[in-house]
Amino acid sequence: IMSGEVYNDVIINRRKDGTLYHEEKTITPLKDVNGLVTHFISTGKDVTERMKVQEKLMYMAEHDALTTLPNRTLLLDRIKHSIASARRRNHLVALLFIDLDRFKTINDTLGHEAGDLMLQQLGTRFISNVREGDTVARFGGDEFVILLSISITLAMIFYFFGFIKVVRKNLTRLKMLPDNPCVFAFTAWKGYFLIAFMMTSG
After folding, report:
1. 127, HSE (Cβ side, Cα atoms, 13 Å)
2. What is the pLDDT of residue 175?
3. 3-class DSSP state for residue 18?
C-alpha cells in the first residue's frame, strides 16, 4: 500500500455487536504532487452471503448429493495428500473398494427410492466405523471407497483386517425398507476385496 498500489481482498471483520462477517475491503492510497502517499481511502462491502454461496457450491462440487459423502473428485485429492503424508511418517495407505452386488435388482423391484435409502444407510454405517481422519466416499453408482491411513505396526494391521469384518457385517445387517413392511433388501460383496497397500517410503 505504501508503494501506491491499491489493496483489495476479502477479510473477516467484526461488527459492533461482536458478530463476525466477511468484508470485501479496498484501500486506495492517495499521493501528493511529489508522488508520496499521504492519505488512504478505505471502502468495504459485506459479502458474507456471497461467501456462503461460494462455500456451498464448493461443497456440492466435492460431495455426493444423495449420501453427502465425499465424491470421486474429493477422494482422489485426499488419496494424493494421504500418500504424501504417509511418505513423511513412514505409514501405509489402505484402500477398500466396495461394489454392491445385485443392487440393480433392488432398484428394479423395490424402486429407486428404496435403492437411494440403502445407499444412504450404508454410507452412515461405514462412517460410524471409521476413525476421524479416515475417508468414506461414494465413488459412483453402487460403489464406495474407504481410505485408511495406518501405521506399520502389528496392532494396526490387525485393526485393518478387523475393520474389514466390521464392513462385511454392515452389509449383512439390513434394515426393513419403508412402504415394504414384509420385504428386506439384500446386498453383498461382489465376491472379493481389492485392497491396495501402498508402501510409501522411498
Report:
1. 12
2. 53
3. coil
Residue 112 to residue 108: CA distance in whole angstroms: 7
Q: CA 36, CA 29: separation in Å to the nearest integer?
A: 9
What distance in Å separates the CA atoms of residue 74 and residue 188, rounded to the nearest whole number? 26
CA 111/CA 22 separation, integer angstroms: 45
Q: What is the pLDDT of residues 145-160, one digit of tens each?
A: 888 876 656 666 667 6
Question: Which residues are catalytic, by number?
Answer: 142
Query: Which residues lie below 8 Å from residue 156, measured CB to CB, with a gap of 6+?
Result: 150
**Which three-class secondary structure state does DSSP give residue 34?**
coil
pLDDT score for 45: 92
Q: Are 29 and 16 in contact (CB under 8 A)?
A: no
Phi, psi of 68 (to 5 degrees): 65, 10
Phi and psi at residue 8, to the nearest 5°: -145, 125
Q: How high is the pLDDT of residue 60?
A: 92
Report residue 114 as a C-alpha cell: 428404496
What is the percent of the chain with per-residue pLDDT over 90, rounded to a whole number?
Answer: 28
Ramachandran class of 48: left when φ > 0, alpha when ψ lies in -120 to 50, beta otherwise? alpha
Summarize the confidence of residues 39-52 as an average pLDDT: 91
Q: Which residues contact 140 (CB under 8 A, 6 or more apart)?
A: 72
User: Distance between CA atoms of 188 and 171, rounded to whole angstroms?
Assistant: 6
Work out the number of other CB atoms within 10 angstroms of the CB of residue 40. Answer: 12
Q: What pLDDT is attached to residue 172? A: 59
The pLDDT mean for the chain works out to 78
